[in-house]
Amino acid sequence: MQTFVNYLQGSKNPLLKYISAVIFLLALALSPMDYIWANAKTTYNILILSSGKSPLYLDIIDTIQNSVTSNKALSKKGISTEFNLVYLSSNQTIEEIQNSADNNDLIISIGQKALIASTNFYNAPPIIVSLIPKQSYEKYRPALEKASEKSTAIFIDNPPRRQILLAKILLGDIQRLGVLIGDTSPYDKEFLTSAIQAAGIQSQIETTNPTDNLIRKLSHVIENSDAFIAFPDAQIFNRNTAKNILLTTYRQRTPVIAYSASYVRAGALAAVYSTPQQIAKQIGKTLIKILQFQLSFPDENSHPEEFEIAINQKVAKSLGISTSTQAVIKNQMINILQEKP
């Protein structure tokens, strides 16, 4: 810059000095963002690491790709993407998985197997971890942070507030909610107590560990509760325990508010959940934002933006609970959630 100023001062041609000065001032007027976009990368190689090749995973991948390739904002900025797909199989080596990450600008892992595989990367590009429970992410987070300096997660489980709100809408005169958490639960007792109290309800929360008698602990909780909330916790709620938990609560006529539609089909009163397609749309939106701002990642991980609810009408009838339609209750929830952050 100083050389250019000296040139202007030394020039004897008034017209040349004037034109040069105008060009110089225009250059200074360019905003930092103009400069960034003038020198921005325009084509990004994106690795999608999928936990499987079932129709569910293929639909998720299609949704992500379509949301990005059809985005007008990216097209306007001249940003394009090249997607590279890797479907995990049981016979892949760590070296093969690591090699798949080479020459990519960003990685999207879909499902728990893909999350675990991502922890084997070394000096990997930024990673979007998706379709996993918060509990799984917290378990593998230290290894993931070693694999890549930058990552963000989109959980499959909804925030606890939504389940609490659903319980309050369905059971208007509820006084106390029961909760059982494990020693690796994604939410501690203090957090859940505060969340339940914020809804104007008292809580009965107990902690269990693998050596405890789970059903005995559960029985003690629901004896002192009007309803029971099953928050996602693989230590407590899994394929080996689900049947006994639901039978125990049903025998004691305690409604269960769960976190998946499958629990409602199995005997829970209701649940808040998000579909894979809703998660896929959110992955696409997150990816678009990241690409728009030169791989600038969100500061926080995120729960699903969209959700559904499921109600088991047979269970409701047997417990003497009268409910509105799922659509009406969902709209009630959305309105309340929009009013209060």
| CATH class division of the largest domain | Alpha Beta
Strand content: 15-25%
- Distance N terminus to C terminus? 50 Å
Described by strand count, sense and barrel closure, the largest sheet is:
6 strands, mixed
**Succession of helices and strands:** HHHEHHEHEHEHEHEHEHEHEHEHEHH
Indicate the radius of gyration in whole angstroms. 26 Å
Structural class: alpha/beta
Write the layout of secondary structure elements.
Blueprint: H1 2-10, H2 14-29, H3 32-38, E1 43-50, H4 55-69, H5 72-76, E2 80-87, H6 94-101, E3 106-110, H7 112-118, E4 127-132, H8 134-147, E5 151-155, H9 160-170, E6 176-182, H10 189-198, E7 202-208, H11 214-223, E8 227-229, H12 242-251, E9 256-258, H13 261-266, E10 270-273, H14 276-292, E11 308-311, H15 313-318, H16 326-339
Parallel strand pairs: 1-2, 1-3, 3-4, 4-5, 6-7, 6-8, 8-9, 9-10
Antiparallel strand pairs: 10-11
Helix pairs in contact: 4-14, 7-8, 9-16, 11-12
Main features:
globular, Rossmann fold, 16 helices, 341 residues, 6-stranded mixed beta sheet, 5-stranded parallel beta sheet, alpha/beta
Describe the structure.
- This protein has 341 residues and is of the alpha/beta class.
- The protein has 3 domains: 2-30, no CATH class; 43-156 and 279-292, Response regulator (Rossmann fold, 3-Layer(aba) Sandwich), CATH 3.40.50.2300; 160-273 and 307-339, 3-Layer(aba) Sandwich (Rossmann fold), CATH 3.40.50.2300.
- The protein has 16 helices and 11 strands.
- It has helices at 2-10, 14-29, 32-38, 55-69, 72-76, 94-101, 112-118, 134-147, 160-170, 189-198, 214-223, 242-251, 261-266, 276-292, 313-318, 326-339; strands spanning 43-50, 80-87, 106-110, 127-132, 151-155, 176-182, 202-208, 227-229, 256-258, 270-273, 308-311.
- The strands form 2 sheets. The protein has a 6-stranded mixed β-sheet with strand order 7-6-8-9-10-11, with helices on both faces. It has a 5-stranded parallel β-sheet with strand order 2-1-3-4-5, sandwiched between helices.
- The longest helix is centred in the last third of the chain and has 17 residues, at 276-292.
- It is globular and about 60 Å long.
- It starts with a helix and ends with a helix.
- Residues 24-28 and 30-39 have low confidence and may be disordered.
